[in-house]
Amino acid sequence: MWRLISGTTKCMQQTAVVTGAGSGVGQAVALKLVRLGWRVAILGRRSATLEETAKRAGDVGEGLLICPCDIGSSEAVAGMSREVLRLFGGVEVVVNAAGTNVPKRSLEVLSLEDYHAMMDANLHGAYYITQAFLPSMRAKGSGTIIHIASEAGKQASPKSGPAYVMSKFGMAGLTQSINAEERSHGVRACAIFPGDIDTPLLDKRPAPPLAEARTRMLRAEDVADCVLFVIQLPAHAMVEELTIRPR
Predict the structure, then answer these.
(1) Domain at 3-244, CATH homologous superfamily
(2) Which residues contact 102 (CB under 8 A, 6 or more apart)?
(3) pTM of the entire predicted model
């Protein structure tokens, strides 16, 4: 069920759409934006995790629009985007942070079902979301689209598995394509390539890392700070790629 945590709909506040906002980087980005006064449509497949994000936002959470949505479905994304644009009147920023992996991820054991599920969540969803909000950005003559990729989108490794690697390389290509075609319309894109992040996605590894190893990883908030940096750049500036790793 959709829920707008506010007594109003359209206003002059800056607006954003964040996918994967029920946990991890997506949640961290949404919380940072809403605490800065943004109105944020938070997307995820499960209402319960989105409600948890709203709960964490506390008193400032009235800027959140809770949007349960399977972004791997083009039909679901189309319906969601129409409603978001109706309520918000436009969107300045899109952050594609949704992503998943599976324990059985190597070429030897990866099932076709898992392959398609990962490509839908990690890449096709980012494409559907981008296409859904690009027209309104073009019409306004401005907009920022950020893709949370991974260092796996720079270099393949057995740790990530082929489907995840392919999806993240694809996000890099989508970012470059947006900049090549849309910069003349005032729209810019950035792909962020984090190293290991301590998020719930780690639990889907074949051998999840121990607590001690996680303490040396990035935090979701670190990547969210990178998102804010990109968003807050002046309109004439563009960072196409940004890599962040644990020290």
Answers:
(1) NAD(P)-binding Rossmann-like Domain (3.40.50.720)
(2) 110, 114, 117, 118, 161, 163, 204
(3) 0.93
